[in-house]
Amino acid sequence: MDPEKVQVKREKHPPRKKVSQQSDLPLDPGKSTQLVPSTSSSPPSLPISPLPLQIISRNCSTISQTAFNWESIQPKRFLLFDKTLDQTNYYELSCLMREDCRMIWKIVEGLLPSVTYNLRYLDKEAMLRNFLPKWSVLTAAIDMELNIRRYSKFEGLEDIQRMLVEFYQYSMPYEYRMTPEAILKTFGPLLAYYGEHVILPIHAKNFDKAEYMALTLLILFDGAYTNISVECSEMCRNIRNLVFRELKGYQIDKNYEETQFIDTVDTLSIVEKGERKFHEELLVCEMHHVHLHDDYRMLMNELNG
Question: Could you tell me which of 298, 132, 93 has the C-alpha nearest to residue 216?
């Protein structure tokens, strides 16, 4: 082949120039193979880094918005729980707790309408029943400082004991009312357990509102119960995974210690201790003719069934 013809052909079709990623100047075609080596010739000691298997979401909109909406309902909650125990009874308090749970549910409906809209009524009611015992102990830790101010009128042990006696006596039919001594002996250890092993340890963790609301969503969307459908359980699992990711991202953004996430999630086991003690309390109340809300009775039936 005539070399001159080959040269003419190359002038008509010059090679495409490659642009360096680090400079706007064109590379020398004669040196391009040295500066941009083929991937097939890459040494095995320099593999391409794989994408991370789990990417932490920094979008914390669900727990942040829940915390914002939670703050907005505090005036209503303050009025809801304005009475001290000596001014109410077990049945009335259980009705208030049920209403408190439904306020949380309304917040969730506003945040996750596509999730809650298609939820079966029976699943929703079962979720709220399952949520009630855990929420009762978690909210006691959340509202602890407020409750300290609310109960500041009770100055000594005798005042507190009198309050508890009146609370339980007015929760029982007159013919079944227990003596003050029997009430303190029966219900005193239960209340002491809540304070020592559940409420105080959670409050001591000093969580902020967003972390408390993350815990609230995690205990609300607990799919481990047998009284909900398989579809509902799967939905709960997906929501919990979302909350876990958001909680992790939120704490990273706040520059919290790495152990904070583990410490927050570990709180769920403390709440479960309170839930078990709550079930025990319901059984004791039933034995001593304490007037219970129907949801509480259904909880006991599901627990025993």
Answer: 132
Structural domain that includes position 244: 61-304
Instruction: Tally the domains of the chain.
Output: 1
CB atoms within 10 A of CB 122: 12
284 falls within a domain: yes
35 or 261, which is more confident = 261
Contacts of 219 (CB under 8 A, 6+ apart): 131, 134, 135, 138, 268, 271
286 lies in a domain? yes
The per-residue pLDDT for range 29-86, each reduced to its tens digit, is: 343 333 333 333 333 333 333 333 333 445 678 999 999 999 999 999 999 998 999 8
pLDDT beyond 50 at 4: no
pLDDT at residue number 16: 42
Residue among 186, 51, 199, 91 at smallest CA distance from 139: 199
C-alpha pair distances (Å), 104 with each of 8, 101, 267, 270: 80, 5, 19, 21
Compute the radius of gyration of the chain from its Cα atoms.
31
CATH number at residue 161: 1.10.565.10
